[in-house]
Design a protein that fits this description.
The structure is a homodimer.
Chain A lengths: L3 H9 L13 E11 L4 E4 L2 E2 L16 H18 L27 E6 L19 E5 L4 E6 L2 H12 L3 E2 L6 E12 L5 E7 L7 H13 L4 E7 L13 H6 L9 H12 L4 E6 L16 E2 L17 E2 L4 H18 L5 E3 L21 H21 L3 E5 L1 H4 L10 E4 L5 H7 L3 E4 L2 H4 L15 H6 L12 H5 L9 H4 L2 E8 L6 H8 L2 H11 L11 H17 L10 H4 L11
Parallel strand pairs in A: 2-4, 4-6, 9-10, 9-18, 10-11, 11-14, 14-15, 15-16, 16-17, 17-18
Antiparallel strand pairs in A: 1-8, 2-3, 5-6, 5-8, 7-8, 12-13
Helix pairs in contact in A: 2-3, 4-6, 7-8
Chain lengths: 581, 581
Amino acid sequence: MWSKPLLAVAALALGPVNALWPVPQKISTGEKVLFIDQTLDVTYNGDSISYTYGYSPSSGSDFSSKEIVQAGVSRAFQAIFQDNFVPWKLRERNSDFEPDVYETKTFVKSIQITQTEKDDASAFKPLAGEVDESYTLTLSEDGQAVIKAKSSVGCLHALESFLQLFFKHSSGTFWYTPHAPVSIEDEPKFPHRGVLLDVARSWFEVDDIKHTIDAMAWNKMNRLHLHVTDSQSWPLEIPALPKLAEEGAYRKGLSYSPEDIKGIYEYGVHRGVEVIMEIDMPGHIGVVELAYKDLIVAYNEKPYQWWCAEPPCGAFRMNSTAVYDFLDTLFEDLFPRIAPYTAYFHTGGDELNKNDSMLDPDIQSNDTEVLTPLLQTFIDYAHGKVRDAGLTPFVWEEMITDWNITLGDDVVVQSWLGGTAVKDLAEAGHKVINSDYNFWYLDCGRGQWLNFENGEAFQTFYPFNDWCGPSKSWRLVYSHDPAAGLSKEDAKLVLGGEVAVWSETIDAVNLDSLVWPRASAAGEVLWSGRQDSAGQNRSQYDAAPRLAEMRERMVARGVRASPVQMPFCTQGDPSECGYTP
Amino acid sequence: MWSKPLLAVAALALGPVNALWPVPQKISTGEKVLFIDQTLDVTYNGDSISYTYGYSPSSGSDFSSKEIVQAGVSRAFQAIFQDNFVPWKLRERNSDFEPDVYETKTFVKSIQITQTEKDDASAFKPLAGEVDESYTLTLSEDGQAVIKAKSSVGCLHALESFLQLFFKHSSGTFWYTPHAPVSIEDEPKFPHRGVLLDVARSWFEVDDIKHTIDAMAWNKMNRLHLHVTDSQSWPLEIPALPKLAEEGAYRKGLSYSPEDIKGIYEYGVHRGVEVIMEIDMPGHIGVVELAYKDLIVAYNEKPYQWWCAEPPCGAFRMNSTAVYDFLDTLFEDLFPRIAPYTAYFHTGGDELNKNDSMLDPDIQSNDTEVLTPLLQTFIDYAHGKVRDAGLTPFVWEEMITDWNITLGDDVVVQSWLGGTAVKDLAEAGHKVINSDYNFWYLDCGRGQWLNFENGEAFQTFYPFNDWCGPSKSWRLVYSHDPAAGLSKEDAKLVLGGEVAVWSETIDAVNLDSLVWPRASAAGEVLWSGRQDSAGQNRSQYDAAPRLAEMRERMVARGVRASPVQMPFCTQGDPSECGYTP
C-alpha cells in the first residue's frame, strides 16, 4: 500500500527540510515549491467552507463537526498567513533558501476535506481509543490538497500537519511550502497523550489554560489533566459549596466559575483535547479546612514531613459522614457540568500519609489494617459517584501499590514513581498512564522551593537540589518509551502518558518556556512512537532539526517555547552539533 | 550614627513587609501609610525637575547629570504609577491588607534630590570603585522624601529604592507605601556587579539587551559583560571589516551597527550600567574564517573535542602578521566608538586549545614551550592596543592559570573555574571577578545541547546531563560569597562578580525567566554582601519574601522573571514553607 515513496523519504527525513512534529507514521515529500494564498477553496464533505480568523464553533454540548473543522481551517490559515515565520534559523547561513517570488508560481488551489464517518457523541468525550484520530493528507504538485479522516478530530490533526508545511517568505507577502508533493498517512501510537497542569499551587488564568490547550493541539496531544485543587488552594467555584473558592482561592475572584470551566472544556473539545479534571483526595486536599471545618485532618501540621510531602498537608477524615455529604454535594454540583465534555474524572490518591489519621478523632490510628478498609469504602463511594455521572475514574498508582485498594476494571491508573511500576500495573491487568517522574516531570531539577534557615537545615540540604533532579532535557523526555519492556499484550494496557507540570515554582510567566518544547518531545513519542516503523528508536539526529522547527513555529504562533539548539546548530546538518567519539 | 532604629528593624526584616532588593546596608521602616500621586514636587539640587514617561537623556558622550537623574525620576514614576502591582501574593490570604482610600490620606509631597559632588568624566565610565554609588534616602511621616548622593548613579540607586516602597492599590487609582517613615543609608559591597550575556551563540535584538540593562539597574547591578562574538557568530558590525558581520552574523541584518552599539552603551550609562564588551581571543573566534581567510586555524574541525570545547572551534593563528593587521584594523575601528562610555575591554582568553596550533602552518606544534611566547606576544600586543585607546584590559583566568602569561597590573582577571582559583589569583595580586560556574552560570543544568546518535554516543551520554549541572537555583546562587575564604586584604582585590548567561539554548524567548530572579540573588550578594552587618550569612528566611516581592515588581515592570515560591508560601511567614528537621 505504501511502498516506494516512503523509502525514498527515509533519507530526506535526516535533512532539515522535512519537518513535521510529531512525525507522521508515513510521509513522503518532494522538493517542488507551492505558494499559498487566502483565495484557495476549502470544502468539507463537498460543502464550501469559509474561514475567519478567530472563528469558534458555537458553544454548547451539541457539537457540530462541520463547525469544528471550519474552526480548524481558520486556525490553520491564521498559522500560515498571520503567525508564520521565515526559517532562517533552519537553513544554511547566508544561503539563498527562499523561492523566487518573481518567477511563475504554482499556488495551492484547494483543500478538499472529507470526513468519512459521522462523529457520534463519544467522539467529543472519548474513552481512550474510542475515537479514530487517523487521517491522510496529500498535496499534489499542481496544488490540490486532499484530507481524509474518519472523525472531525482526525481532520484537525490533518490541518495541523498541513499548516506545518508552510513558511513565510521574507518579502512578507508570500507564503510557500518547499515540500510538494506531499503524501501522509498518519495515526497515533497511543490514545492518551497528555499534559498535567497543576493550577492549584500557582494560579493560572483561564487564558493560560486555553493557551496550553492550543500548544497541545499543535503537537497532537489530546488530554489536559487539570490538577485543579490541592492543599495549597482551591480555585474551583462550586456554587453549592461557595466557601470553597471564597476561602480557598489564593485571592477572591481568582477562581474558575462554572462558565470558565465550561469554556475550558469546550475549548478543548473544539481542538481535540479532552480535559480530565482531578480533585485530589483523600490527601492533598487540606485547603478545604479553610472553608468547611471538621472534614480535614493535619492541615498545616508541622513539621510537615511527618504528615505529608509538602506543606500545608491536610487530608479528608476517612470515617466521616460529613465528608461523604460533602462529596455528594461537590460531585452533584460539578459532574453534570463536565460530563457533556469528558469521559473521565480523576480522584487523585497520591501520597496519602497514614499518620494523618492519627489526628482524626474518629480513627486515631496509622495502622494500615485500620485504614485500608476505610479507604476502600471511600474510594468505592467516590468512584460510584463518578460512574453514576457517566464518567470513568482515574487514580494515582499508590491506591494500588501502597494501599492495595480494589478498583473497578474501568479505572485508569496513573503511574509516576517509575521503576517497574507501569509494567507491574499492566501485568496486573490495569489500564495505565505513564508519567514516570524520572523522565516526564517537567518541573524538576531547578532546585528546592523550600526555605532553609541558616544552620542545620542549610547544611543538610545544601546545594538545595530538589527531589527529582536533574531537569529533564528534551533529549531525556524523548528517550522514554511509555511501554518499554512490556509484552505486546500488556503494552496495550498502557493507554499513553502525561508530562507533568507541578507548579511550586511555575506560573504563567515561565510556563511556556518550561513546558515547550519538552512536552512536544513526549508528544512525538506518544503520537509517533518511540520507535520508527522499522522498530528502531527514533534518533536525536532526526528529531532535533524537526523539533527546532516546531519550536520556531510555536513561538511564531504565540507560545514562548525554549530554543532547542543555537542557530549555529540548526543552520547546519544535525551532525554539525553532534557528538562523535 | 545609626543605632536604635536599625535594631528595631532587624526583627521587622523577617516579616514580609520590608521588601527592598537588594537590601540596603542600613534601613529602618515604620508602619504608617503614605499615598503618592503624580503631583508631588521633585527637585534636583534645588531645581524643580519634570518627569515624562519614556524621557531619555540626550545622546552623546557629554553626559548631563541632571538629565540622567531626571530620566531616573521618570522611570521611578513609570514604575510606581504605570507598572506597579497589587501585592496579594505577598499578604495573608483573604486579608484586608490595603489601606482604606476613603479615609484621610497623607501624600508624599516632595522628593528633594541632592547630588553633593559633581560627576567627573570617570563617573560615566568608571574603573571598579571609581564612582561613589552610595546614597541616603529618608521619607518622613508627613511625606517629605530626601535623597542625597555623591554621584548621579547614587541618585539613581536611591530612586530604585524609593520606588520599591510603593504598591498599586486594587482600586487602580491609588498608590501607597505601608512603610513610612523610611530611613536608608546604603552603598555597595562590591564595585563590580555584573551579568555576562552571550549574544554570539544566539542572536539578541538591541532591545533584548537594553531590557536586560533595565532589569540589572533595578537590581543595582552595574556591569553588562557583552560576549559579543564567538566561533558560532559575529554579529558586530565593523565598518572597516565589513565582511565580518556580513558573513559572520547568523543572518544578514542581524548585527549590531555602530549606532546600535553606541545606543547600548549610552543606555547603560544612563542607568548606571557600564558595558564591557568582550571579543574572545585567541580561541573562540573561528567565525572570522567565514569572512577573512588565513587568520584562523581549526575552524569546524571534527571531532570537535580534539580542538575546542564545542563546535565549531577555531582560533587565531598566533604567529601571523595578518592577524596582527586584522587586530589593528578591528581595534582602531571599534575602540574609539566605545571608549567614551566604558573603562574596559575584554580580550577573552578562555579555553584556548593547544592542539589548534598544530594545524597552523607557521607553528605546527602543541608544545607549551613553543606556544607560550607567541601567546605572550599576542596578549601584550592586544592589551597595548586596549591601553592605547584609554581602556583597561579584562581576561579570562586561563591566561594565567593555564598559560602563565604575564599581565599588566591593570588587567582584571575573570575566574569561572571555581575551586581555589579566585583565592589563588587574589593572593598572586590580581584583580579578580568571580564567575564561579558552580554557582553563577545560569545556563547550566538543563541538559546537553549536542545531538547524540543512537548507539555508542547515546549510551555514553545518557541521560544527557550537561557539564555544569545541576541548575543553579537562586538559593545556591545566593549562597556564594565571591570573596569567601580570603584575607581582608586579598578580598579587596575581588572587585565583584558576574553571573553568566551562555546562550547555547537561550534566546530572547526564555532569557528573562532563566536570568531573573536568579541574577537578582547574585545582585544582592554583590551589593549588600553575603553577610549582614552583624557578619552573619544572610538567611533564606529573610531573602525569600523580599525576592518574591522583587520578582512581582520585575514582572510588573515587564521582565518575565520566574516565580520564587508559590503563593501559598509567599502569602505566609517564610517559615510556612521552611524546612524544620
